[in-house]
Structures are given as structure tokens and as C-alpha cells.
From TrEMBL:
<feature type="domain" description="Guanylate cyclase">
    <location>
        <begin position="110"/>
        <end position="217"/>
    </location>
</feature>
<dbReference type="InterPro" id="IPR050697">
    <property type="entry name" value="Adenylyl/Guanylyl_Cyclase_3/4"/>
</dbReference>
<dbReference type="InterPro" id="IPR001054">
    <property type="entry name" value="A/G_cyclase"/>
</dbReference>
<dbReference type="InterPro" id="IPR029787">
    <property type="entry name" value="Nucleotide_cyclase"/>
</dbReference>
<protein>
    <submittedName>
        <fullName>Adenylate/guanylate cyclase domain-containing protein</fullName>
    </submittedName>
</protein>
Amino acid sequence: MPKFLRIGVHQSNVSGYTSKAWCVRRVGSAVFLKWGAVEVQGAGDGRKVYWSRSPQQKTVRCGTAQRAIDYATAAIARRRNHRYEPLTGPIALRRRSAEHSTELKQALATILIVDIVGSTAKAAKLGDARWTKVMGHYYAAVRKELKSSRGKEVVTTGDGVLATFKKPAAGINCATAIQKAVRTLGLEIRVGLHAGEYTISGGEMVGLAFHIGTRVAAKARAGEVLVSSAVKELVSQPEIRFRDHGVHQLKGVPERWRLWRVEG
């Protein structure tokens, strides 16, 4: 069963954060897919990978063995094109106590989503070796600013980062600091922030607030930091200025939302 893992920097990540893995297996005319969030512990040859929770699974019945072969080949090629690396070792399902597995932690925070604009084209232009080095510097810069702003990294998604802050102003200041830092690497990012209640379940963030933050980030263009009205209403610092970005329908989110662009 070919397995693929997507992480920030090939074979050299710090341990203890969440990434994503895929498994592709063909049996006759059927293709079995398995995917989900994983926790990476360690690096290099000593690295261990665990499913954060039970992975999602899907069976694709292709009708003929040749169609199944073509489907599996294409699925594997897509993983590689999206900078997933082949994973040779096993992916274990970490055993948790019954008390821990059912525990739900609720929190109210400002959620920050950072995403690199045009990352696929940039990676193709630079090549794997140079892009790996750039991504290493990128994550180092992001984590430095998160630490300075007392932000908490929740998950990395290939070239994106999700983090939370207790104070919305800290999240906004961190976003602008990250922008300045990564421009020295020739990268442009878009950032979205939303404030709301979310739940941590099985090590993953769930809840509508998370989805709203993701949709706000998707509305931003290169170099923009967009925030929802929920964030703007909580900011009292006069040095943080906003410009009305209009009312938007966020995909999959009820009602329409007014967004604001951070100025300066």
C-alpha cells in the first residue's frame, strides 16, 4: 500500500505537530483510499507517525482492473504533485484512554490562517531542493513570530499554518509581522482571522469558527490580512486600522459576512 506524508520540510521537521497522510491500495477493480491528520514525532530515520484519530476511508469501484490501475496511478501522481513524500514506515493509531478520547476542550480565541499564494507555481519554478530550503526558512519565520506574539500553533497544512491567540490584536500584529518576514524569502501570503468558540477533539480543531476563519483567508489576495467583524469589534487599539472590504458570502457558511482589511 503506497503511503504519502505531507509536512513542511522533508525529513527535518521538529516533532509534535499535525500534518496529513494518504494511503492508496488497489485490489482487482477496486481502489481503497485512506487519509487523515497525523502526528509526527521525531525526525529522519527515528521519525514515527501516528493517526491523530481514526482516518477517513473510501472505496472506489472502477469496474475493470485497468481502470483501477489508472485511477490509482493518477491518485499517487496527485499526491506527489502536491508535495507529499513517500512514506515507507507504518502509520499507527495511537491508543488513548477512554477518558481522554471522549474529552472535548472548548475555547474562545482568535483564529489565524496563513497560506502561501502561488505555492505550486513557485515550487515548480525553484525545484524540490530549493523549495525545501525556502519552506524551512518560511516555517522558521512563522514560528518565530508566533512565539513573539504568544500565539499557539495548532496545525500545519503543507504550506499553511493555523494558530490561535487569546487577544485579537496579538493575532493581527503577528500576521503583519509574518508578512514582512516571508517577503524576504520571495513569498507572498494571505491571512484571515476570525474570533469565536471552537472545540479541540482528538487533537484537532473543529467547529464553525474554524471554517469561517478558513473562508475569510480564502477571500484575501496576496499581501492582504482580512478579518471578520467579530475580530474588528474586539480590537480597541487605535494604531490598528481597518478598511471596509465589503459583505461576502463565505462558502458553506450561513448568512453573509462583512470583512475588513488591515491597513498599514
